[in-house]
Amino acid sequence: MLTERIKQWEEAREEFLDTFHQLADDQKSVKPSPEKWSAVQIVEHLSKVDGFALRAVKKAATRSNLSKPGIINELLTRFACAYLRSPLKLKVPTDKIAPSNSANVDEVLSEWQSILQELRSEALNLPPEKQDAAMFKHPLIGMINLDQTFRFLTEHLRNHHRQLQKLIVTFSPK
């Protein structure tokens, strides 16, 4: 099950990157308007969120007596994933994952790739008894397990993929 969740997450990432690379280099840092993110800011945000997940998995690997998330957390995960699939928008719940205004495209992509590889490895090497433990603290959902985390990360990535696709349209000739 976990392998399948990670595969879905990786496929969503590949689709995102295929779209990202359609942009010319000079377009990747352009904000379509002052309140909207550039393509590189979207990647930086995704990298920060995945980095939080990575730190949570690493921490869970070293802890004992981890509890399992409750039914409320499962319902909130499902709600959050459904919300991310909707056309509704939500402000970033914490400044810790907000992008900067000066990110370097190559550095952000390299760091994100590194985080993704390590997150995949750490998640797959986590003992089965810890995979069901509440380990990732989402600011709105609360504590969620590895399966819930990858479901959220996949929908979160797909949501920002749609955002990126809209951004590309702004660069298309009219």
Account of the 3D structure:
This protein is mainly α. The protein has a domain at 1-7 and 65-90 and 118-174. It is built from 6 helices and 2 strands. A hairpin with a 3-residue loop joins strand 1 (136-138) and strand 2 (142-144). The radius of gyration is 16 Å and the shape is globular. The mean pLDDT is 91.
Distance between the termini: 45 Å
| Structural class estimated from helices and strands | mainly alpha
The total count of strands amounts to: 2
Detail the poorly predicted runs. Answer: none
Radius of gyration: 16 Å
Mean of all residue-level pLDDT scores: 91
Number of separate helices: 6
Widest sheet, order of strands: 1-2
Biggest β-sheet description: 2 strands, antiparallel
Shape: globular
Helices and strands, in N-to-C order?
HHHHHEEH
Report strand %.
Answer: under 5%
What portion of residues is helical?
55-70%
Short description:
This protein is mostly helical. It has helices at residues 2-20, 39-62, 71-85, 105-125, 128-131, 146-171, and strands at residues 136-138, 142-144.
